[in-house]
């Protein structure tokens, strides 16, 4: 008859489970991860509703909402793509509105739309300071953090959809929502 494990063994087993949780990728391969298993995941579910985009790969969204101070697996690379997509969206918007727009005007629109001030405002509006994971000494509401996470979010949509069009759609939606909120203040 098997004897129950001693308290020491049980402690060790518990430590192992805590120290080596199953890898997120392993879970992703088994099917979409449930989006309400933790407060973080619940916040991510709300964020998807706010931006009007549902992720096929929720791990991308988790990564986007993780600052470099918190984990080596963070949204920095996604933010590079998000910034490029935002600039491209703004430049296209300027030229679509006026084929004869001057290079300086198109350039100004692109840099304004992609500025830290604009993306921090959009990120704050969509609730990023309460969602993004940062190290304890890092402020989740600092403009560079909020802006980086917002850009990473745009980049994550592009990767998830394998299309910058989907990312640009989310970018404009956030832009319009933030502008409307600012105008009504
Ligand atoms: C992403 O899109 C490109 C271009 O449409 C396509 O060639 C590629 O196979 C797609 N990749 C995935 C993983 O769907």
Automatic annotation (TrEMBL):
InterPro entries: RNase_III_dom, RNase_III_sf. GO terms for molecular function: ribonuclease III activity. The keyword Signal applies. It comes from Panicum hallii var. hallii. Residues 1-28 form the signal peptide. This is RNase III domain-containing protein. One of its GO terms (biological process) is RNA processing. Residues 44-162 form the RNase III domain. Keywords: Signal. Transmembrane segments: none annotated.
């Amino acid at each position: 008859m098997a004897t129950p494990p001693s308290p020491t063994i049980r402690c060790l087993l518990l430590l192992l489970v805590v120290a080596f949780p199953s890898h997120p990728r392993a879970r992703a391969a088994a099917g979409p991860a449930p989006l309400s298993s933790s407060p973080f995941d619940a916040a991510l579910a709300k964020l998807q509703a706010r931006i009007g985009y549902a992720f096929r790969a929720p791990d991308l969204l988790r990564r986007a909402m993780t600052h470099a101070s918190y984990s080596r697996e963070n949204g920095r690379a996604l933010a590079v793509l998000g910034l490029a997509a935002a600039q491209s969206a703004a430049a296209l918007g300027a030229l679509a509105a006026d084929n004869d727009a001057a290079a300086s005007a198109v350039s100004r629109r692109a840099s304004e739309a992609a500025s830290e001030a604009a993306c921090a405002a959009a990120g704050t509006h969509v609730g990023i300071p309460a969602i993004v994971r940062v190290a304890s000494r890092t402020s989740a509401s600092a403009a560079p953090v909020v802006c980086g996470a917002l850009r990473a979010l745009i980049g994550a949509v592009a990767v998830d959809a394998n299309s910058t069009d989907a990312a640009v759609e989310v970018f404009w939606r956030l832009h319009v929502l933030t502008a409307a909120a600012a105008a009504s203040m």
